[in-house]
Structure formats: structure tokens, C-alpha cells
Amino acid sequence: MSWLVNGQVLDVRSGSIEPRHIHIESGRIVSVSSTLPEGASREAVDLGGAFVLPGFFDCHVHICADTYNPDATFGWANALPGSIAIFAAQAAHRLLMAGITTARDVGGWDYHEIAVREAIRNGWIVGPRLYCAGRILTITSSSTAYYRGMYEEADGPDAVRRAARKQLAQGAQFIKLLATGAVTSTEYESPMATQFRRDEIAAAVEVATDNLTYVAAHAHSPSGIRNAVECGCRSIEHTVYGTEEVYRLMAERGTFLVPTLCATHALFTEPAFAAKVTAHVRARYEEIRAIHVENIRTARRLKVRIVMGSDAGTPGNHCGDNMQELEVMVKQAGFSALEAIRAATLDAAEMMRIDDQYGCIEAGKAADLIAVRVNPLEDISALRNVTFVMKGGTTVKNQLSSAH
Questions:
Q1: pLDDT at residue 270 above 90?
Q2: Smallest Cα–Cα separation from 180: which of 243, 242, 138?
Q3: Under 8 Å between Cβ of 48 and 404
Q4: Domains 2-54+359-403 and 56-351 in one fold
Q5: E strand or H helix at 10, and its extent?
Q6: CA atoms of 83 and 110, how far apart (whole Å)
């Protein structure tokens, strides 16, 4: 039994902030109250007026991807045994310290990310609650050479079924597939190109549904987005070249959108690093930067369900700075601070079908909590300086006293 006292608690449903004390027992929130029982302060962590929010979600990360290497063609070539898992474990730790208590890994590397997930579950290492897709399903692709441990090639519905079942057998909790080409790919692959066709996407959705889960579809072009939506994918990732037509369809169907806006922003944060990035990849990122933001503004206007995903794992887009996605959503794409925060808490939990346990600060929910010194509704950048993190009732970071 424990208490967090003297916090300014954000209700992500209403946007109200009220001084509250939070009672926690067995990893869950027992109560959120304005009064403190006698004697409770003896077992309390004093938040000192910090702003308290639910633990955040990042619905699109790749913890195995080496974001510090500008060479997109490298892909862990000649890596020593264990190197990838160790890197992924460190990346997971940085996620948690940044306030990401739950993350969706949408494409790992030879299942090292699943080993990291299990190590976190077993208490061997510290990290967020991970939900993993295993390998990304793809057609025969020139880019598989870039991502030999991340891609699972399959052509035709039967092969897709086998590949999807393989991921689930390896411990995947949902399926990720490429409905179109990618931006961070070879010169021979266009982001506008259709990859899996409708019968292949439908086969993956069928397997996911049979196994009580869902499909996340990477899609950039309007045709690829439409195929994924109409075949029943639960989330569409990126949508760089989305149009009003496909966003209206997504809104009508209730399909979630994971924008990953900060990938281009992060690449160009350090000019010296950006200059070393594979030339055609860098040129593509430059081309899509403004296009992507404008199209996500359109999706928001059309009331598409949008949840936070940083795409941490692309060049220069490091785990640990995930909250920059919210900053870009607010400062460039027109979201209110509360909209962005909901996208990373309650709405993300709903997309992942775990909103019965996570996503808000209410009695009965898991005690996943973060705190910042500055009101994030007034300055969204405050979320890039998280000073307190609790996951499942255990405090994993507390810098509140040093933040005064």
C-alpha cells in the first residue's frame, strides 16, 4: 500500500487538472481523492505539486533498430551474438525513463525484441510493457536485404497465412504487414507502390482474427491505405500520401491512424548525422516532410482516430526522445495539447484493446503514472522532461526533488 500525494492530476477525459492524492495497492489505483487519510503521509511519495498523467503509450517503435547508424543499408550485418538483444534492452529502458510505460514494437529483429519483452516480464531488466509483432510480413522485396532480421517474405494468401501464424507461434501479439513500399527502403522500392494485395491482406486479417488479435498495416499510398482499411486492418501506420477520400473511409470504419510524424523531424535534428544518411533515403525524407504533416492535419480535420507513434527506430529517431512526436503533433499538425496527450494515453489504450486497464488515472486502473514539473496543456514540450515514472505501482524514476 502506498500514496502519491500533492499531485496536480490530469483527467485525460475532460482535460481538467485538480490537486489530488493517489492511493495505490498491489499495482493498481485504489482511489484518487482530494483528502488524505490520517497517517497516510507516512507511506507517501510527495509529488510537490508536479503534474501527474497516465503512463504514456508509443504505438510504433522498433527497439532493435540501430538509430545511431546513418547507413540504412547496414542492418546489423556481422553483429556479434547478443548485440541486438542488448541494444534492444537499452532502448527499452530509455523508453520507460522517457515516460513510455507501454510500447508497441511493430517490427523487431529475429525475435530479440520478444526476448526483451519476456525479460522485462520476468523482472530481469527494467522496461515498458511491450507488445510485439515479430517480423513484418512483406512481399518479395529488394529491401529485405536491408532488414534481414525484420522482414518475413510471403507471396500469395496461403504463404501470408503461414507467415502470420509463424509470428504468433514465436510470441507475436499482433501482425504487422506492408501494404505499400516504404520510405526507408532501397532505390528500387517506391513508397507509393502497392505491395500486399487485397486477398493477401485479408488472409493476414483472417489469421489475426482467428487468434483474437489484429493487423497493423504500414501504408503510404491511397490505394494501399484503402486496401488495408477495407480488409479490416485495425491500424494504419504513417499514411504519408493520404487523401481526403481515404481518411473519410478510415473515419467511417473507425480505423486507427498512427502518424509517426517525428521521423522526418528527428532525422534532420543533427545536420552532421543527416548528411551521412544514405542519400536516396535522406532525399525522400526531405520530400515528404511537409506533405506528411499537411495530410495528418487533414486526417485530424476529418476526425480519424489518431494515436501516438514515434517510429523510434528510423535514423536519428532514438528511443528515449519519443515525446517529440507529441510536440510535432501540436506545433506543426494543429492538435491541441489535450488531443495529443489523449492520443498517447486513453485513445492508444483503446486501439490496443487494453483500455480496461490502462490509459487514465482512475480507481481500478493499473498504476502507470508519470509526472512533469510544467503544465503540459500549456507547454507540450514539458513532456520531454519527465521527472517521475511509475509502472504497475513500482517507482522506476524519481527526480522530483532535483527538479525544484
A1: yes
A2: 138
A3: yes
A4: no
A5: strand 2-10
A6: 12
Provide mean pLDDT across the span 203-228. 98
Q: How far apart are CA 324 and CA 382, in angstroms?
A: 10
**Rounded CA gap, 98 and 325, in Å?**
12
Sign of CA dihedral 189, 191, 195, 196: positive
CATH fold of 2-54+359-403, please?
Urease, subunit C; domain 1 (2.30.40)
Looking at residue 42, what is its pLDDT? 72
Number of CB atoms found within 10 A of residue 221's CB: 23
Distance CA 63, CA 388 (A): 22
Instruction: Give pLDDT tens digits for 147-190.
Output: 989 999 999 999 999 999 999 999 999 999 999 999 999 999 99
* Closest among 116, 180, 191, 188 to 145, alpha carbons compared: 188
CB half-sphere exposure, 268, CA atoms < 13 A: 13
Is the separation of the CB atoms in 231 and 214 below 8 Å? no
Question: What pTM, to 2 d.p., does this model score?
Answer: 0.96
Average pLDDT, the chain: 96
Residue with cell 503510404: 220
Can you read off the three cell numbers belonging to residue 268?
534532420
Determine the CATH number of domain 56-351: 3.20.20.140
User: What residues does each domain of the chain span?
Assistant: 2-54+359-403, 56-351
CA distance 322 to 166: 30
Confidence label for 1 from pLDDT (cuts 50, 70 and 90): low
Strands 388-391 and 394-398, bridge-based pairing? antiparallel
Q: How far is CA 291 from the centre of its chain?
A: 21
> What is the per-residue pLDDT for 404?
43
